[in-house]
Specification:
Helices cover 8% and strands 23% of the residues. The chain has two helices and five strands, in the order αβββββα. It has one domain: Metal Binding Protein, Guanine Nucleotide Exchange Factor, Chain A.
Length: 95
């Protein structure tokens, strides 16, 4: 699904994440295990960040939603999201 949505994950520790806009402008839903918390803009529907099931102590930010001047360098790691269950153990977890 992330491929179809164009979501590029940048996982950061929750304590390093600051929401700069009004939280009343976002809505959250959960499904299945209810661990992941998917957040969307109430106005346009964009999913700019969420709490992932693979790293519930972190926030996964959609890199495509960041201003180009926000980050200088990103170290990408490939992940087979189509076979999530079989590959989740290979993800780095936040300490």
């Amino acid at each position: 699904m992330c491929l179809k949505l164009g979501f590029e994950h940048l996982i950061v520790p929750q304590q390093q994440f600051t929401l700069l806009s009004d939280p009343d402008n976002i809505t959250t839903y959960t499904f299945n295990t209810c661990v992941a918390q998917h957040t969307f803009c109430k106005h346009c529907g964009v999913k700019s960040f969420y709490t992932p099931r693979s790293n519930p102590d972190g926030i996964s930010v959609n890199v495509r939603c960041l201003d180009k001047t926000t980050i200088e360098n990103i170290d990408y790691k490939n992940f087979d999201g189509q076979n999530w269950e079989a590959n989740v153990d290979g993800l780095e977890h936040l300490a």
